[in-house]
């Protein structure tokens, strides 16, 4: 949930426009994803758009010999390693020295301790618009300079620019995006079971039963990390309640005790509350983190722990860790439509400057360019909202289609609801929405109690 400030508007809140655009994007995804085969369709070495004096260079950066920067983010594993390759290119072009600082969730608390100690990182990658607003309110964040804003204007839709603004001032560069309306599945399990890709929620339940009857648990859920559960809820809620209600709940203009929330939780319980539909049961799922929820779906041969796992395009990194091939062993379909609206939920991480300098502004400018995004796009498990990145930079046909669908959607998407909230409600382990949905996973009959807890925590966080 984004800040309630009027300056932090959602891209195109008009219900009719959002419905039609979401439906169009979901239809495009359905068409393109089911048409994708193996991952033999590799990108060319030239990557994205080219310009400037060097091949693959579109942005001019200053020489920064002798200067150093610290960049903080919560990324780990392959995601961190791939981002470090982007930072290495910045070092090569500018002569600056960049150090990656591993952060912990909630990152605002982590940064607070750094600021209090007089050692904030120069740049932080913030995963929530609400966190950007907090950084601005605490006077940590510094506005972007002319060069960074020019790159944003050239390479980003207005919607992606706007969610990095607070009070009309540009603070964030959304370097990384996510399509969070996808369900990945083990192709061999589906083939053995005779299961087909569903397009509606009822068809998803039928597919799950078909898989279960074949002897494989239908779903893997990474319940140890509450954000995966909020993503489940958001897709169901957006599709069932519609974009207008989604926007209202995101800003706490309607309460979590609203009947629309009851309907979404009731729908979720059809999966979470179904005996033997979740790998390890509810208690077992609460011990499974997100990476493991993916890898256990694609290891174990014909008998993996689960046949399907819901999460965004970034799951490809973990699929690769499981030695599975995207498009062959691991296939994907759009999150099934529950109501009239096909859900298109996005997330993202924005670069925000905490120590203003020539070097930090140059890094923000670089991250807003297609040069930086193209490097990480080629490595897989990454999606950029930068419309100037050549689609061929993505390493397989599935990823290329997902990226194209996101760019083609323009401003017509809905940003992750929990990421728009004050972090105390939407982004803190063991608290707020994360904890309430973890409790609901273990007791999906307690719909009224879950709603009451969500409303109490939301009211406290939003201050209303």
TrEMBL record:
Residues 37-60 are annotated as: Disordered. InterPro entries: Bact_solute-bd_prot1 (IPR050490). It comes from the Bacteria. The keyword Signal applies. Keywords: Signal, Transport. Residues 1-37 form the signal peptide. Belongs to the bacterial solute-binding protein 1 family. This is Extracellular solute-binding protein. It comes from Streptomyces pseudovenezuelae.
């Amino acid at each position: 949930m984004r800040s309630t400030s009027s300056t932090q508007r959602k891209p195109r809140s008009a219900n009719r426009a959002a419905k039609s655009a979401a439906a169009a994007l979901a239809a495009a995804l359905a068409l393109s994803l089911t048409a994708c085969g193996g991952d033999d369709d590799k990108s060319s070495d030239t990557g994205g758009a080219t310009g400037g004096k060097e091949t693959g260079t579109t942005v001019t950066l200053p020489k920064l010999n002798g200067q150093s920067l610290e960049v903080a983010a919560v990324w780990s594993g392959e995601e961190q390693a791939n981002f470090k390759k982007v930072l290495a290119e910045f070092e090569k072009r500018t002569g600056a020295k960049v150090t990656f600082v591993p952060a912990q969730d909630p990152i605002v608390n982590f940064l607070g301790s750094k600021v209090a100690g007089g050692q904030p990182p120069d740049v932080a990658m913030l995963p929530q618009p609400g966190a950007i607003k907090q950084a601005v309110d605490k006077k940590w964040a510094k506005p972007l300079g002319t060069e960074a804003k020019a790159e944003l204007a050239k390479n980003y839709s207005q919607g992606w620019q706007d969610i990095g603004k607070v009070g009309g001032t540009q603070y964030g560069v959304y370097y990384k995006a996510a399509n969070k309306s996808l369900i990945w599945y083990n192709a061999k399990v589906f083939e053995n079971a005779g299961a087909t890709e569903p397009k509606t929620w009822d068809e998803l339940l039928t597919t799950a039963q078909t898989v279960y009857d074949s002897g494989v648990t239908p779903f893997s859920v990474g319940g140890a990390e509450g954000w995966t559960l909020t993503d489940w809820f958001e897709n169901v809620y957006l599709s069932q309640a519609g974009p207008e209600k989604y926007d209202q709940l995101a800003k706490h203009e309607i309460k979590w005790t609203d009947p629309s929330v009851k309907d979404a939780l009731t729908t979720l319980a059809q999966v979470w509350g179904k005996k033997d539909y979740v790998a390890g049961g509810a208690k077992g799922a609460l011990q499974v983190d997100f990476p493991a929820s993916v890898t256990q779906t694609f290891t174990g041969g014909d008998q993996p722990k689960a046949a399907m796992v819901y999460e965004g395009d970034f799951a490809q990194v973990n699929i690769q860790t499981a030695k599975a091939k995207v498009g062959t062993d691991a296939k994907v379909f759009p999150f099934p439509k529950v109501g009239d609206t096909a859900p298109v939920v996005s997330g993202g991480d924005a670069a925000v400057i905490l120590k203003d300098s020539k070097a930090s502004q140059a890094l923000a400018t670089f991250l807003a360019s297609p040069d930086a995004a193209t490097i990480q796009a080629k490595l897989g498990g990454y999606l950029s909202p930068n419309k100037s990145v050549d689609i061929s930079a993505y390493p397989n046909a599935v990823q290329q289609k997902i990226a194209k669908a996101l760019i083609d959607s323009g401003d017509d998407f809905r940003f992750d609801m929990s990421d728009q909230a004050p972090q105390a409600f939407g982004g803190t382990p063991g608290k707020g929405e994360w904890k309430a949905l973890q409790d609901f996973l273990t007791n999906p009959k307690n719909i009224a109690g879950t709603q009451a807890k969500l409303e109490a925590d939301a009211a406290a966080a939003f201050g209303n």
